[in-house]
Write a structure and sequence with these properties.
Shape: elongated
Number of helices: 1
CATH architecture: Beta Barrel
Strand order of the largest sheet: 1-2-4-5-6-7-8-9
CATH topology: Porin
Oligomer: single chain
Radius of gyration: 15 Å
Mean pLDDT: 88
CATH class: Mainly Beta
Number of domains: 1
Length: 153
């Protein structure tokens, strides 16, 4: 649990730094399922750069608790489907590498894998939006993550 607290402190510092630099960021919370693992996760994310008009770099950190402790660092690149946006609603998809660290039941492991993500957004105001996403793991990543969050611009 001490590692989870340290990770959340590091994330808080990273988010504060991002906010000062005008980078979009926000909190996230959700459910993680992988085999017999069932957890609630919380964390944060930041839109740190663009690779093109609609291609965003969005890393995130999530700490899950329940059946042990799972820390996941996601390095996502997502495409924002602005051409499919309807009013305040939007859609994005992408994925990337994920680094996980699991401690629980007398066992621990560190894995590097890939995940894919599909999500939808709803603009509350011009400077913030809600999102919901589904993340599927490939190989050693958690099988399924359902996440809700908020992004501040």
């Amino acid at each position: 649990m001490q590692k989870a607290i340290i990770a959340l402190a590091a994330l808080t510092l990273a988010v504060a730094t991002a906010a000062a630099g005008g980078v979009a960021f926000g909190p996230r919370v959700g459910y993680t399922s992988s085999g017999s693992l069932d957890q609630v996760h919380l964390g944060g994310h930041a839109e740190v750069g663009r690779l093109g008009t609609n291609l965003l770099i969005v890393p995130s950190l999530e700490v899950g608790s329940g059946d042990g402790t799972l820390i996941a660092v996601n390095g996502d690149v997502v495409y924002d489907f602005t051409e499919l946006a309807v009013g305040p609603w939007g859609l994005y998809a992408g994925g990337g590498p994920v680094l996980t660290r699991y401690d629980g039941d007398g066992a621990d492991s560190t894995d590097f894998a890939l995940s894919v993500v599909v999500g939808g957004t709803y603009d509350i105001r011009s400077d913030r939006h809600l999102f919901g996403e589904i993340r599927l793991g490939i190989e050693d990543a958690p099988d399924l993550k359902l996440t809700l969050g908020l992004t501040f611009r």
